[in-house]
Amino acid sequence: MAKHGKKYRSAAEKIEPRPYQLDEAVELVKENASAAFDEGVDIAIRLGVDPRHADQMVRGTVPLPHGTGKTVRVAVFASGEKVKEAEDAGADIVGGEDLAKKVAGGFLDFDAVIATPDMMREVGKLGRVLGPRGLMPNPKVGTVTFDVAEAIEQNKAGKIEFRVDKTGIIHAPFGKASFTAEQLKANADAIIEAVMRAKPASTKGKYVKSVTVSSTMGPGVRVDESSMVVAEV
After folding, report:
1. pLDDT attached to residue 1
2. Which end is more exposed in the chain, N or C (fewer Cβ atoms within 10 Å of the end residue's Cβ)?
3. Helices (H), strands (E): how many in the chain?
């Protein structure tokens, strides 16, 4: 096990071994973020699902009311008139087969990918490159669409995608330590609400098992599920 530094240990000592109300938890995270850079803030939601079964896969997208605090570089795979539409809407990178070849060769200087449906034949070949990084466009989350302008706007404004991993946990960013506690709580509430809405019908027992918030360099703070905006359904 890796040893934690003095700042981490000092921060961990301030956290009591109990779940906190969500507003208290984000205040603690902000207080304990002492790195020389503006630390990101993340939420980890452990779910009572078995992601090995397709009917228990939990995924979706959610626009964060206050964004992520990160500049999102958007790549768009398009052709014809959709190329200009994407450029006018603020896409950072736009291309077709040429862009697919660059990405296949290792070019990954972007944070989100949008594709028009007619380009998925090319983009589909990039599954091994984009898939492991969570960048593969998907119609279910609005990243395979002919309405590229709206998709770009949503991604630039802070729409995030969440997906349960093989251990049953959803990890998602919801801001920066420089955000106010109110902004962080509103963003966390939005993610929790979206995860609750995505609850599979086949789930048995307790759906949300635990919620933890933390900054990039700081210790995790357990959240009392009863303080969350959406009750268990």
Report:
1. 42
2. N
3. 8, 9
